[in-house]
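> example.struct
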């Protein structure tokens, strides 16, 4: 009976995904060797260098994958909450057991190796989310239905960010918002997240830029204009009234026009004028929502009023809450400061390495930027610059396409699941891989702040490789079991 079941596992296993996994892992291993290669080094299996060490992690990940496939699929559902509780205890204990590594308290030393529990927490949280949201009676109807899921992802994220001081690993948990959206969460929640990021960037980037007319800052005026447009858009959308659009837009333009005229004789505080416009629109929206019982407009109005205070608090958060190294990275990214020898060094060198590869690259093991160690962390967080330099634009595109096919394959697997638990877990896995890929490549290209998260299957490190292996092979085991499950 057991032999038959084992045979079914190998027969029903999603081999295209296995093939992509092996291809990415092996090519990542070659690039780790290329990134850490020195001219007096002869073998990729030399265990004194990182490529040799990574080979042992790869062998371990293959053994781990086989073990995960042989475990009864029901075990992952049954033990989800127990594993989540154990994981929280481990995360809480980590800062007391870990050594300070570049300001982070997230690595536990176990003899000759170090493990980062945060890498494994993503898989456990995915199982816990799938367990909770996979209940037959569970549906996302109101915001109250999201309290527990947000707590499940929020608690470990806060522990990792506050106690372990590992911002990058904590931000990965934001990937679960895509899963919530797939399960019925309102798109307004995602919109709120995007708006919060946009307002934060505008506030800190332009808060010190004075207006050419009147008094006030470009940052405050830009934020208030953005909120004004949002309120007008949602009010008119809800009322389906084109005339209302003209009335509200015309009224706002009239107020600003009067302010410009008055400014000829008296200096007008445009910060307060723009805030007043948003408050007036919010009051109108509240009255409109209560009169017509359109309570979504009430949420829009309250959100706008909240954002007024939020934009005023952004500067405090930026200067008092964020760590100095985090502030300088954001300032360099937004062009507020030039620091080519400091916070901007990694990104500048990564760009030089990628650009020097041109179309077809310099050839394997021939990258000068990597061989001369110009790029820090070139075999971990910045491994993609090695791909760009040695394999060029063509090689980089092929790698990104491989990741694209891999993530699309995960989505295909998610859509064919017969239980909600399996589908939610599958989308969690796809979202985490997508988040890692987007942030890492965006960081290396200088499009996003440097927050330090690995590129799946490419970056050196046993914790990240085993963490991604856990995510993937548990999914593959659940996918095999779909033939045994009823709809």
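> example.seq
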């Amino acid at each position: 009976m057991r032999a038959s079941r084992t045979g079914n596992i190998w027969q029903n296993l999603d081999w295209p995904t296995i093939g992509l996994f092996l291809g990415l892992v092996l090519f990542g291993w070659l690039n780790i060797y290329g990134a850490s290669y020195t001219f007096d080094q002869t073998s990729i299996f030399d265990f004194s260098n990182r490529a040799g060490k990574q080979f042992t992690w790869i062998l371990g990940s293959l053994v781990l994958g086989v073990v995960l496939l042989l475990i009864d699929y029901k075990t992952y559902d049954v033990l989800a909450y127990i594993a989540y509780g154990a994981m929280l205890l481990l995360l809480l204990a980590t800062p007391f057991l870990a050594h300070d590594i570049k300001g982070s308290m997230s690595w536990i030393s176990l003899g000759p190796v170090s493990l980062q529990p945060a890498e494994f927490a993503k898989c456990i949280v995915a199982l816990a989310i799938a367990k909770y949201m996979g209940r037959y009676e569970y549906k996302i109807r109101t915001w109250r239905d999201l309290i527990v899921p947000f707590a499940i992802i929020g608690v470990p994220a806060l522990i990792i960010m506050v106690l372990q001081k590992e911002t990058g690993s904590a931000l990965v948990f934001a990937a679960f918002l895509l899963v919530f959206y797939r399960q019925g969460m309102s798109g307004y929640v995602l919109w709120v997240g995007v708006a919060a990021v946009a307002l934060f960037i505008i506030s800190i980037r332009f808060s010190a830029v004075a207006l050419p007319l009147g008094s006030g800052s470009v940052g405050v005026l830009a934020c208030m204009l953005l909120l004004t447009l949002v309120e007008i858009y949602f009010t008119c959308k809800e009322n389906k009234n084109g005339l209302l659009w003209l009335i509200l837009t015309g009224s706002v333009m009239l107020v600003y026009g009067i302010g410009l005229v008055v400014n000829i004789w008296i200096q007008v505080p445009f910060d307060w004028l723009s805030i007043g416009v948003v408050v007036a629109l919010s009051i109108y929206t509240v009255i409109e929502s209560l009169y017509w019982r359109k309570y979504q407009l009430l949420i829009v109005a309250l959100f706008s009023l909240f954002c007024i205070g939020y934009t005023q608090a952004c500067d405090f958060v930026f200067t008092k809450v964020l760590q100095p190294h985090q502030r300088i990275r954001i300032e360099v990214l937004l062009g507020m400061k030039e620091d080519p020898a400091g916070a901007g060094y990694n990104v500048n060198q990564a760009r030089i390495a990628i650009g020097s590869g041109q179309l077809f690259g310099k050839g394997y093991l021939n990258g000068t930027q990597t061989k001369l160690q110009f790029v820090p962390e070139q075999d971990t967080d910045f491994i993609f610059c090695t791909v760009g330099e040695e394999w060029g634009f063509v090689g980089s595109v092929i790698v990104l396409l491989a990741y694209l096919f891999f993530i699309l394959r995960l989505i295909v697997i998610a859509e064919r699941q017969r239980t909600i638990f399996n589908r939610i877990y599958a989308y969690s896995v796809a979202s985490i891989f997508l988040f890692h890929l987007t942030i890492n490549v965006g960081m290396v290209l200088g499009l996003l702040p440097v927050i330090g998260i690995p590129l799946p299957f490419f970056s050196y490190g046993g914790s990240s490789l085993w963490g991604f292996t856990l995510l993937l092979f548990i999914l593959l085991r659940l996918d095999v079991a779909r033939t045994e499950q009823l709809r």
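> remarks
Residues 207-322 form one domain.
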